[in-house]
Design brief:
Blueprint: H1 2-22, H2 29-52, H3 58-86, H4 93-112
Helix pairs in contact: 1-2, 2-3, 2-4, 3-4
């Protein structure tokens, strides 16, 4: 549980730091991809730690399964977004919105799950 809280705090710190650094500027697609990948990886690590911990409660495991379901939905669109950015392209606004909406759902689970 301590590891999950540490991961959550690190994720929140990263998001707040990015917001403070960029101020009112929008993130570039590369910066956005970096934030999303970091969030994805943090939530993935947290969910896996919960699922593999024999001391996790059923409520914690249920929350981890909900996170996993959203992570599964995010995986392909995020992978495509990152590939486009790495190739020097600019992803479609609609693609970014889909990913952002799913990240928001993850954030709601993370903040509601503590």
């Amino acid at each position: 549980m301590k590891k999950q809280i540490s991961i959550f705090i690190a994720c929140i710190f990263m998001i707040v730091s990015c917001a403070a650094i960029t101020g009112t500027k929008e993130l570039t697609p590369k910066q956005q991809a970096t934030v999303w990948m970091s969030t994805y990886n943090s939530v993935y690590d947290s969910a896996m730690a919960t699922m593999t911990n024999p001391n996790s409660t059923q409520v914690q495991k249920d929350l981890a399964l909900k996170k996993k379901a959203i992570l599964t939905q995010i995986y392909n669109p995020l992978k495509l977004y990152v590939a486009i950015v790495e190739g020097g392209g600019v992803p479609a606004t609609e693609d970014a919105k889909v990913i952002n909406d799913l990240i928001d759902q993850l954030s709601a689970l993370v903040t509601g799950g503590l």
